[in-house]
C-alpha cells in the first residue's frame, strides 16, 4: 500500500513538472524566451547520449552487474526446485558454475554497452573485455585476502596460510599467461 502511495506521489510531481514544461513550450512569446533561461530537460539534451569518461570501466561494470544478477537468479531458481540441498557444498558449487556459465552474459552486455557509445574501430574494447573478466574475481580475491589477514592477526582457526593464497595467485597468473600465448 505504501509503495502505491509513493508511486502516486512521484507521478504527480512528474506530471506537474511536465505540465509546466508543456505550458512554456505552448507560449510562443519571444519576450518570454529571452527572459527565462532554459530549464529541465533542455539543459540535458546534449549530455544524454554522450559517452562516459571511462567507457571501458563503465561497460565492464555494467556487464559484471548483469552477470552477477543472472547468476544469482539461476542459483535461486535452482534452490527453489530443490536440487541444491542434496549434499554439502552444492550451493557453492552451483554458484561458481553459474558464474562461469553467465560469463557469456557479461561479455555480450559489456560489448553492447561499449559499442553503444563507441565505434568498432576503437581499440578500447580489448580493455573492456579484460576488465569484464577480471573485475569481480580481483575484488573477491582482495576481500578474502584482507579477511584472511585479519584472521591470521587474531589467531583464528579458519585462517588460510599465506602460502596457499600465494599459490592461488601464482596459479591465476599462469592461467592468464597460457591464455595470452594462444
From TrEMBL:
It is a multi-pass membrane protein. It is found in: Membrane. Keywords: Membrane, Signal, Transmembrane, Transmembrane helix. GO terms for biological process: protein localization to membrane. InterPro entries: EMP70. The chain crosses the membrane at residues 57-80, 127-150, 156-176. The keyword Signal applies. One of its GO terms (cellular component) is membrane. The keyword DNA damage does not apply. Residues 1-17 form the signal peptide. Pfam families: EMP70 (PF02990). Belongs to the nonaspanin (TM9SF) (TC 9.A.2) family. This is Transmembrane 9 superfamily member. It comes from Reticulomyxa filosa.
Amino acid at each position: 500500500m505504501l509503495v502505491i502511495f509513493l508511486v502516486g506521489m512521484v507521478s504527480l510531481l512528474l506530471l506537474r513538472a511536465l505540465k509546466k514544461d508543456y505550458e512554456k513550450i505552448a507560449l510562443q512569446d519571444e519576450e518570454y524566451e529571452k527572459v527565462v533561461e532554459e530549464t529541465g530537460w533542455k539543459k540535458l539534451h546534449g549530455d544524454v547520449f554522450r559517452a562516459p569518461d571511462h567507457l571501458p570501466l563503465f561497460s565492464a561494470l555494467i556487464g559484471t552487474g548483469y552477470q552477477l544478477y543472472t547468476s544469482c537468479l539461476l542459483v535461486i531458481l535452482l534452490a527453489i526446485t530443490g536440487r541444491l540441498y542434496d549434499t554439502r557444498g552444492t550451493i557453492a558449487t552451483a554458484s561458481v558454475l553459474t558464474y562461469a556459465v553467465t560469463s557469456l552474459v557479461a561479455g555480450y552486455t559489456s560489448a553492447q554497452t561499449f559499442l553503444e557509445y563507441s565505434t568498432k574501430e576503437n581499440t578500447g574494447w580489448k580493455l573492456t573485455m579484460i576488465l569484464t573478466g577480471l573485475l569481480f574475481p580481483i575484488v573477491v580475491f582482495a576481500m578474502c585476502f584482507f579477511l584472511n589477514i585479519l584472521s591470521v592477526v587474531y589467531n583464528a582457526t579458519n585462517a588460510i596460510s599465506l602460502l596457499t593464497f600465494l599459490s592461488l595467485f601464482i596459479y591465476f597468473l599462469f592461467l592468464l599467461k597460457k591464455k595470452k600465448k594462444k
